[in-house]
Amino acid sequence: MRDWNISKWCRRPSLGLAVLAFLTACGPDDAANSEKFSLIDEEIYDAPIKTQISQNIVALGVPTKEELEAEILKRYRAAEQRTAFRYHSSPTNIYLYVYGSEEQARAGQGLWIAMLAKNYSDTGDPKVVIEEGRLAALSAAPEDRFGLSEEMRRAIFKESGEAEARATREAMERVPNTEPMAQAKLEVDLAEKFKADLVAKQGISEQQLLEIQAEGVTKGWPM
């Protein structure tokens, strides 16, 4: 992995399955909202292989770890009790994600601050996982670094992700998949070029760019 590569995570399982029976996307349920948390979307996947509920929730403020865990477990218990599915009597898979902002939730990059995952084969109660860095970032006051405001660093972070995606896209366009080594080399070369262009454009050093990227990953800035 290149030193400036930014890891990306998928927050939802693929729905491109041949066994798909139907997919129902439900809008926010007002009954599921509270003063501190809001359900922004839900997906239900019902097929012979599994019946799955996925929810994306936004924290309205800065919750404590205890509040996050209690909220997710409450929603998990409610999801467990749901019925009237076609293929299973109750959900076999439940995925709950809490985000610090709607921007993080809508980005589709797995930028949750807390989550719970219950898979088909799991036994016992699943554990709530909390991302400490992103949670702490919710209450951290913005600060300048390298003479750059947080807003400017967020823009640079996003641009670095776009540059990497561009390098991958152009390498795939210019070199066929039948030449994987040549394609990979071109991708690395293009990524290095685009990184150098970004550093020169922003008037920062390569080390500063690395620190901005690390900050963005830790704080969960959308790309």
Q: What would the average pLDDT be, to the nearest integer?
A: 87
The coarse silhouette is flat
Number of helices: 6
Content of β-strand: 15-25%
- Can you tell me the residue ranges where pLDDT is under 50 for at least 5 consecutive residues? 1-31
Helix content: 40-55%
How many E-type strands?
Answer: 6
In spatial order, strands of the major sheet run: 1-2-3-4-5-6
- The H/E string reads EEEHEHEEHHHH
Q: Quick one: biggest sheet?
A: 6 strands, mixed
Euclidean distance between termini CA atoms:
18 Å
Computed CA radius of gyration, to the nearest angstrom = 21 Å
Q: SS-based structural class?
A: alpha+beta
Describe the structure.
The protein is built from 6 helices and 6 strands; from the N terminus they run βββαβαββαααα. Helix 4 packs antiparallel against helix 5 and helix 4 crosses helix 6. The longest helix is centred in the C-terminal third of the chain and has 25 residues. It has a 6-stranded mixed beta sheet. It is flat. The relative contact order is 0.13. By secondary structure, the protein is α+β, with helices and mostly antiparallel strands. Strand 3, helix 1 and strand 4 form a beta-alpha-beta unit. The two termini are 18 Å apart.
Overview in brief:
With 223 residues, the protein is an alpha+beta fold.
Key terms for this structure?
223 residues; alpha+beta; 6 helices; 6 strands; disordered N terminus
